[in-house]
Design a protein that fits this description.
The chain is mainly α and 273 residues long. The chain contains 13 helices and four strands.
Length: 273
């Protein structure tokens, strides 16, 4: 009797049972898969680390922390030597730093683009941490911050330069337009990467970066050349920063990711203005 009774209990655990023993379909909604970069579904350590290593470039970690992630000076700030400092952080600490812009102690950070990283999916975050955990200690210890200079203090007074944690809170719900599941991957890439320079809604920054509606005027091949080499149609000269970002970061996007990014930006550009 144990077998049938157990089977009945298991059946009731998977469906709603009324008092007569009849079963009714449970209205359980499946959780949609997280939107991720290609390769986030790696199921063992080696490919997971490889995915995380690629993300460390796409997301700009090396741009601030140096090619070997051993840290470097930025004006008054110093991007940490990740090869040394992360040995003292738990995985939860790393997630907190990246997603909230706060150190484990609660002290706010400056210059960390956590307003972007707060949107990083769990599988991508796990792969990035796996890569960071693989780093062997090297280089010099992280240097202390210098006192803010007058120009920086003025920007702080104007509210133009704030702790990373402030930007996280202010921009949490400010995102590029949602064009549905078909364009979810392309939107996700803009949210955690392109928004750093072009703003959280991709509308650009005055006198600095353009609204990404400009992609509407690019063919697929022209966009691919721009995003991988930093060279736009007509071989115009772009800002050195965009050239560097394209060559060192976005050239590492997979063809599928570049297709998704172009499709999303093209569809966004074609919306009624």
């Amino acid at each position: 009797m144990r077998g049938p009774s157990l089977a009945f209990l298991m059946l009731c655990g998977l469906s709603a049972c009324d008092q007569t023993g009849d079963t009714k379909q449970s209205a359980v909604t499946a959780i949609p898969a997280a939107v991720t970069f290609d390769g986030a579904d790696a199921d063992n350590q080696s490919p997971k680390r490889a995915h995380g290593e690629r993300l460390s470039w796409v997301l700009g970690c090396h741009g601030c922390h140096g090619k070997s992630l051993e840290g470097q000076r930025f004006y008054e700030s110093y991007a940490s030597n990740l090869t040394r400092d992360l040995r003292h952080y738990s995985d939860a600490d790393i997630v907190r730093v990246l997603k909230t812009g706060e150190r484990p102690s609660g002290k706010p950070m400056w210059g960390m683009p956590s307003e972007l990283f707060q949107h990083l999916s769990d599988p991508d975050m796990a792969a990035l941490i796996a890569e960071l955990r693989s780093l062997k200690p090297a280089g010099e210890p992280t240097q202390p911050m210098l006192p803010f200079e007058a120009e920086t203090k003025e920007l702080i007074a104007k509210g133009e330069f704030k702790p990373a944690s402030d930007f996280v809170k202010e921009l949490k719900d400010v995102k590029p337009v949602d064009l549905g599941p078909k364009h979810a991957l392309g939107r996700y890439i803009t949210l955690v990467a392109c928004a750093e320079c072009h703003g959280p809604e991709l509308k650009g920054r005055p006198n600095d970066t353009p609204d990404l509606i400009v992609v509407g005027g690019y063919s697929r091949d022209e966009f691919d050349k721009l995003i991988t080499t930093g060279v736009p149609p007509g071989n115009r000269k772009l800002k050195e920063l965009m050239q560097d970002v394209a060559r060192n970061r976005y050239s590492r996007l997979t063809p599928h990711e570049r297709d998704a990014l172009y499709a999303y930006l093209k569809a966004r550009a074609e919306l009624p203005q």
